Structure of Rhodocoxin:
Amino acid sequence: TQINIITPDGQQTSIDASANESVMQAASRQGIEGIVAECGGNAMCATCHIYVAEDWLDRLPAMSDDEDALLDGAAAERRANSRLSCQIPVTDEIDGLTIRVPDRQV
Ligand code: FES
């Protein structure tokens, strides 16, 4: 599954993600900077905040109440397309997903 990631410096990188990981884990594993993920993927920190490309928003699993509450406390501005990358499982359905990393996580 391919995921396109735009880092704060404007550079776009494509990574390969596996079905047994989250978008956060795939990005961290491949050294993408700017996804801090302090809590290790447990929906407790909001330092894995990302912006999802608009045309992908409806195609991702709905966010939980926990994710919704955490996003309110994210370091970078919360937008309509904000999500926590640790709460997006990698599946065939998200092949080609494009996300943007905010300029800060803490
Ligand atoms: Fe902590 Fe996603 S890694 S909320």
